[in-house]
Amino acid sequence: MIRIEEIPVSRIEEFWKIHYQYLIDDGILTGEEEKKYFRSPEY
C-alpha cells in the first residue's frame, strides 16, 4: 500500500526515518555500505 503524507520541515527527521525504513523494507538497501550511505549527510 502506498501512503502519501505531507510532513512539514519542522518534522524533517521523521521524514528521513520513514524514508530510510521504506528503502530497507522494499529491499532497495541490502548492504551495510548502502545503509550507511543513505543515513549520511551526503545523501
SSE topology:
Elements (H helix, E strand, L loop, with lengths): L11 H14 L6 H7 L5
**Termini, distance in Å?**
26 Å
The main β sheet shows up as:
none
Strand portion, in percent? under 5%
DSSP summary: helix tally: 2
Describe what you observe in this structure.
This protein has 43 residues and is mainly alpha-helical. It has 2 helices and no strands. The relative contact order is 0.11. The model has no long low-confidence stretch (mean pLDDT 90).
In short:
The protein has two helices and no strands. It has helices at residues 12-25, 32-38.
For this entry, give a set of tags.
43 residues; mainly alpha; 2 helices
